[in-house]
Design brief:
Blueprint lengths: L1 E7 L4 E10 L2 E11 L5 H19 L3 E5 L7 H20 L3 E5 L1 H9 L6 H11 L8 H23 L3 H6 L4
Parallel strand pairs: 1-4, 4-5
Antiparallel strand pairs: 1-2, 2-3
Helix pairs in contact: 1-2, 3-5, 4-5
Length: about 170
């Protein structure tokens, strides 16, 4: 059994989703969003850090899959997004989780089959792949999609004999 938390980072809203890979099948456990309400940016980062830490303590995942920062037109937004990612990654590392990063295109390709899929397509496929009764909110769907992407890549690398350490460092066993 392997539990994975997927994260869709944001400085105001950070989506999360926890899934479990058990006997070759994926099971949905929970998802939601951490809505950072602090007026000061450092307060929002603390809320993200503590929120992710609480989810990790509650659901005990062993791996974190997180979306990479992509270059945006607004440099300030990209920097804030990077700091929100850093808060989430630090929370995971403080709880000894292995961290894996995926680009938005990798995630969409893995879940929808198209690297430039629309958000609605990602939401729909997440609902189908996890047998959810409703379409998840956008931030939740993106986080769950990140976890699903990691599960697919992880399963493939297991089959071809790539060790967990090599997955993070790029070294084959």
């Amino acid at each position: 059994m392997i539990r994975i938390i997927g994260i869709d980072p944001g400085s105001r809203v950070t989506g999360y989703g926890v899934i479990e890979l058990r006997n070759g099948r994926i099971h949905y456990l929970t998802s939601g969003a951490i809505r950072a309400s602090g007026a000061a940016f450092p307060d929002r980062l603390r809320e993200i850090f503590e929120g992710i830490g609480g989810i990790v303590e509650t659901f005990s995942p062993i791996e974190l899959a997180i979306e990479k920062v992509f270059v945006q037109r607004n440099v300030d937004s990209a920097l804030k997004l990077g700091q929100a990612r850093g808060a989430a990654i630090c929370a995971a590392v403080m709880h000894s989780l292995s961290v894996y990063e995926y680009s938005p295109n990798q995630i969409k390709q893995a879940v929808v089959g198209r690297g430039h899929a629309a958000k609605e397509q990602v939401q729909h496929m997440v609902k189908i792949l996890l047998s959810l009764s409703e379409i998840p909110q956008s931030d939740e769907a993106d986080a769950l999609a990140c976890a699903l992407c990691h599960t697919q890549i992880r399963t493939t690398l297991d089959r071809i004999g790539v060790s967990p350490h090599a997955r993070q460092t790029g070294v084959r066993r």
